[in-house]
Design goal:
Length: 66
């Protein structure tokens, strides 16, 4: 696993009115249950923790001009 540093320079990102446009995703996967009596699958969702606040969130980032 690698540590990535967030880009700086929001002057290169897209804005609409006063709002910064961002793009996000909800990464997930299906995982089979270990229960032999059922063929159900569990949905696992990836979330990340934010160094600037409490809790977890979905991965996202700003749109850049280039």
């Amino acid at each position: 696993m690698s540590d990535l540093v967030a880009r700086t320079g929001r002057h290169q990102q897209h804005y609409e009115d006063v709002y910064r446009l961002i793009a996000g995703c909800v990464p997930f996967r299906y995982k089979s249950c270990d229960n032999d009596s059922s063929s159900e699958k569990i949905v696992e969702v990836l979330m990340i923790n934010s160094p600037s606040g409490q809790g977890v969130l979905f991965p996202k980032g700003g749109w850049e001009n280039n």
